[in-house]
Design goal:
This protein is an all-alpha fold. The chain is about 70% helix and about 0% strand. The protein has 11 helices and no strands.
Length: about 240
């Protein structure tokens, strides 16, 4: 597997633009089509409006994202940069096997496959071959980490972009599903933005032994969404 150059600590204009690109809802990986259980939470009455939604998403950021996808992405970026294929496989298996519902597993696999195709279109090499070999599919944080590693950006800045991309997709889902106005959505995005740096720092400091996927309420509403009668989103 080809080694990826270790980045400097400063963020260049090129690196910044790459992270903005990776965080964009326009990235062709389908993130806009998922609500990650939020649609079912609204249907069951667990989320009523702006205040409930802000609390739900902030909890999801700190209790789920920081302990799973952000933590995995942090370790995967480092593994891609040092050419550690075994570590990549371990992180991918952990991500897939700890998803708490079939919808959440399908989401990470579908987005991982889409990221692989996007990466292949830009540059096909030993790293994309390894990513493609991950069975049954590359997962989203592991695939995204390869793109982040190629950007040359520092890990913390890459994770800030990853978290903001997640937050923006979730707020856009909420605007359609609650529904909310654009201004309310921006207020919630501000709260998430304020919480993201601490979540990223926690993810980076998290040892493997403390990484976890244990969000019972999220798992329950995600499972309910699988049989929800009327829905807008794939999860």
């Amino acid at each position: 597997m080809a080694r990826i150059r270790r980045p400097s600590q400063s963020l260049s204009a090129t690196q910044l633009l790459q992270l903005i690109w990776l965080a964009s809802p326009a990235l062709p990986v389908g993130g806009f089509s998922y609500s990650e259980g939020l649609e079912a939470a609204i249907e069951t009455g667990a989320v009523h409006g702006e205040t409930d939604l802000a609390r739900w998403l902030c909890d999801q950021l700190t209790l789920a994202q920081a302990r799973t996808d952000l933590a995995v992405a942090a370790r995967a970026i480092a593994a891609w940069r040092r050419g550690d294929g075994q570590r990549i496989r371990e992180l991918n298996d952990w991500t897939r096997l700890t998803r708490e519902s079939s919808e959440l597993r399908q989401q990470t696999e579908q987005m991982g496959r889409s990221m692989l195709e996007w990466l292949r279109q830009r540059r096909s090499d030993g790293d994309t071959a390894l990513l493609a070999s991950l069975a049954p599919a590359p997962t989203w944080p592991v695939a995204w980490a390869l793109a982040a590693a190629r950007s040359g950006a520092p890990v913390r800045e890459a994770l800030l972009a990853h978290a903001f991309g997640w937050a923006e997709n979730m707020v856009q889902s909420a605007i359609k599903a609650v529904p909310l106005g654009q201004t309310a959505g921006q207020r919630i995005l501000q709260q998430l933005s304020d919480a993201i740096p601490a979540a990223v720092d926690a993810a980076m400091a998290l040892p493997d032994s403390a990484r976890q996927a244990f969000t019972p309420m999220l798992a329950i509403v995600s499972a309910r969404h699988e049989t929800q009668y009327s829905r807008l989103f794939r999860s």
